[in-house]
Amino acid sequence: MFEKFSQSWALIKASASVLRSDKELLVFPLISAISCMIVAASFFVPAIMGGLFEGGDRDHVSPMAYVLMFAFYIVQYFVIIFFNSALIGAALIRLEGGDPTVADGFRIAMSKLPAILGYAVISATVGVALRALQERAGFIGRFVVGLIGLAWTVATFLVVPVLVSQDIGPLDAVKRSAELLKKSWGQNLIGNGGIGLVFGLIFTATLLIGAGLVVMAAINGAVVLAISLGIAVVVALLLLALVQAALHGVYAAALYRYATVGDAGQGFDKATLASAFMVKA
Questions:
Q1: Is residue 215 assigned to a domain?
Q2: What's the structural domain count of the chain?
Q3: Domain limits for position 239
Q4: Which of 8, 43, 126, 136 has the fewest Cβ atoms within 10 angstroms?
Q5: Any long-range contacts for 183-188 (C-beta under 8 Å, 24+ apart)?
Q6: What is the pLDDT at residue 80?
Q7: pTM score, whole prediction
Q8: Is residue 59, in this structure, part of any structural domain at all?
Q9: Angle subtended at Cα 114 by Cα 125 and Cα 103, rounded to the nearest 5 degrees
Q10: Which of 53, 65, 70 is nearest to 128 (CA)?
Q11: Residue 79 lies in a domain
Q12: Distance between CA 257 and CA 165 in Å, rounded?
């Protein structure tokens, strides 16, 4: 347990060292988050105002609602994959010894637009299908569908680095991602889970400490201070989310390099990476 956490922490620190060298990588998840909020508002505000979701229940969702959901998923996935491609493309340049810029990341993502759109359609199809199954399944069925969704997430973990680095289509990228994971690391995807675990702890600590300070300030009648602390906590949580997203991108780029050339790149220790992703016996 402690050994796995130690390995995960070492991998996070290695990813963080790359991020410190290229702080501009944070631009990609920031613009991605803003764009996703704009996309969500542009789809659902008109739908809600038009009464599309009124009078329905989860067992009888209208066909039009599914059409809207599918279109939303395509656009939302396209936005996420596009900016993730830019992030990972720039990170790969750094890991190969270069000095990437934001423009480099966008240039790489723009050159992969057809593949990104194709993968967005595939992801949207899977997402809508799983959502439909969950809404019609019982408790056990929803659990099984959740496992299928988790398996899909694991199998496609390296799709974006594959799309960025290779001139292949989205279907072949999905197959290649699954092959790389199976070949190199088996079922112990410790490092990626480690990033989530560490940031989950940091998120929880920040929220609890911040909430405590806000409550103490409010109890003592310092309303302005309480509001200021509340805003500071929200900003801190948003910054943590941006850093986590950027670290995931750097980490995915390093894992792809390790899987294909046996070297994660500058800042990553090969022995640590190998021990964190051992093939399950």
A1: no
A2: 1
A3: 2-201+235-276
A4: 136
A5: 183/259, 184/258, 184/259, 184/277, 184/279, 185/259, 185/277, 185/278, 185/279, 186/277, 186/278, 186/279, 186/280, 187/280, 188/276, 188/277, 188/278, 188/280
A6: 94
A7: 0.82
A8: yes
A9: 120
A10: 70
A11: yes
A12: 10
Check: CB of residue 69 under 8 Å from CB of residue 128: yes
206 touches 244 (CB < 8 A): no
pLDDT score, position 280: 47
Q: What is the pLDDT of residues 108-155, one digit of tens each?
A: 999 999 999 999 999 988 888 887 777 776 667 677 777 787 778 878
* Single-letter amino acid, residue 79: V
